[in-house]
Design brief:
Blueprint: H1 17-27, H2 32-39, H3 43-50, H4 57-67, H5 71-76, E1 84-95, E2 107-113, H6 114-121, E3 128-134, E4 147-151, E5 160-166, E6 169-178, E7 182-186, E8 195-198, E9 206-216
Parallel strand pairs: 1-3
Antiparallel strand pairs: 1-2, 3-4, 4-9, 5-6, 5-9, 6-7, 7-8
Helix pairs in contact: 2-3
């Protein structure tokens, strides 16, 4: 066990930033030198914060990331201590068929704890969105009405399933790289033929929106 974590020799005042930071460091057995390395700060700066000085907002965000808590709670004591992942669920259906025009972007927001989100999506990204699938081109993997979660931070095509915009429509397809700066687009349903997208085409309307990281099946 580390001997570097702050000792609880005095009562921690959780009504202050310093008190909340002391609590977190003690619970996670993280000492000032270790936290300093985690966030790129001097150990002296950490000790000043523990003694009542308050860091700038960007440092609070880094501390919250490093210790896995809600930065608003760390700063002010308001809200939940747990850091939640906010997921936008768009009222915009992505086609697992012939394409859906992206003419609406109404959405609601759901919250998941970061631990649950990391486990469910197998990703630490907080840039997760959800949309509803429509069509049969990706059956049996994805069916109409399934809720599709995509990671907008993961757009590099690497032989996986992605949500893409092509010629003004939204699709869910399997994408892989080909020689000659081309993308091979395929469906799980063999009734839909594969095709290629030439990325060198100057008139091309194409964007990878994100990689599909999970699917919630419609019951």
């Amino acid at each position: 066990m580390s001997t570097l974590a702050p000792k609880n020799t005095t009562k921690v005042d959780e009504n202050s930033f310093a008190g909340r930071l002391q609590r977190l460091m003690a619970e996670r057995n993280v000492g000032p030198s270790e936290l300093a390395k985690m966030i790129g700060q001097s150990e002296g700066g950490i000790r000043k914060w523990l003694n009542g000085s308050q860091p700038q907002a960007e440092k609070i965000e880094k501390i919250a990331d490093a210790l896995g808590v809600n930065p608003l709670w760390l700063l002010s004591g308001s809200g939940s201590m747990k850091r939640d992942v906010q997921i936008r669920v768009f009222d915009l259906q992505a086609s697992a068929g012939h394409g859906i025009e992206p003419d609406r972007e109404d959405f609601c927001t759901i919250s998941l704890s970061k631990d649950i989100a990391n486990d469910f999506f197998r990703s630490s990204s907080s840039n997760i969105d959800a949309i509803i699938a429509k069509g049969d081109s990706m059956e049996p993997s994805i069916r109409t009405g399934d809720l599709i979660f995509l990671n907008r931070d993961d757009r590099e095509v690497n032989n996986d399933t992605y949500v893409m915009r092509y010629s003004g429509a939204i699709y869910i397809k399997r994408l892989s790289r080909m020689p000659g700066n081309k993308i091979y687009v395929s469906s799980d349903n063999p009734s839909y033929p594969a095709y290629e997208i030439d990325l060198t085409d100057p008139t091309l309307d194409f964007e990878v929106i994100g990689r599909v990281v999970s699917t919630m099946k419609r019951i």
